């Protein structure tokens, strides 16, 4: 009986391994070509500033990119199998409380207000309305595949979503760069990505695509968008290998006035403090999800305590979390992140900074005082 259960479990998770090979969204595979990353030891001061690292291009390899902040995402297939087959899941008892909650986007409510607004669409997708221009970040309107449950299906017809004027992609994992969603946008949308995604947007016919390296800035009228470093990795094809494209965070100086920081997927790293010292940030949008178990996820994603520390380091006025509620990519149930972040913020006396956005809800950002 025990053997039969083991075989059944092995078969079940073999399907997930297949899905993993197709979607490449978990920490899975290390560097290839035998290249060694020049790492900065964890918990020690960085040798260079972030700008110096970018200028020296130490995140550039030969035909690939690398993390200068430690072993970001360096997990092999056996680690993945150990997690899924042999690691104890202490959160399974909470899965029965997960609920499917369809998402409706109220276009009229968003567009009738002046100033800056941020709408949490689903997963890591947010839409920023900046003086009538709609900026989509990591847009995804659909499910990844039948291997995953979409707990926040978009009820609003994608054709009824506000037109995408500007699209920002943080990295190439399939839950952040979704071709099916991008195909719903008009071809004249301006797209910003880190380096290495030209072929995808050429195939999509989106010719207004700008690739950026760390600390490069795109200017559009009164709006400035800078790609910043973060501690992550990327992969779209396991046969080619990881990190053939770059990843990053975005600093958006909006035309409306406030400044928005978008972390993208990232582990905690010392660079948050430096970013907070250089930029005056109003809203920090931080990814919080797929953080358990820590032994597997800590090099790729922050947990609630680390997210609060990152928020402190950034010195932002408001905190919004994304990357939760839509797909269960870690052990924690999809509803855990907002509960645990509120508990952590309360411990540190920061609960007043938290903007508790559910999917489909909008935050109207207060104007900066003169």
Tell me what the structure shows:
The protein starts with a helix and ends in a 5-residue tail after the last strand. The chain has a single domain (97-357), classed as Metallo-beta-lactamase, Chain A. The model is unreliable at 7-24 and 28-44 (pLDDT under 50). Strand 7 (217-220) and strand 8 (223-228) form a beta hairpin. It is built from ten helices and 13 strands. The relative contact order is 0.15. The strands form two sheets. Strands 6-5-4-3-2-1-13 form a seven-stranded mixed beta sheet, with no helix packed on it. Strands 7-8-9-10-11-12 form a six-stranded mixed beta sheet, covered by helices on one side. The chain is of the alpha/beta class and 370 residues long. The longest helix is centred in the N-terminal third of the chain and has 22 residues, at 2-23. The chain is globular. Helix 1 packs across helix 3 (77-86), helix 7 (271-278) packs parallel to helix 9 (304-314) and helix 9 (304-314) packs across helix 10 (336-347).
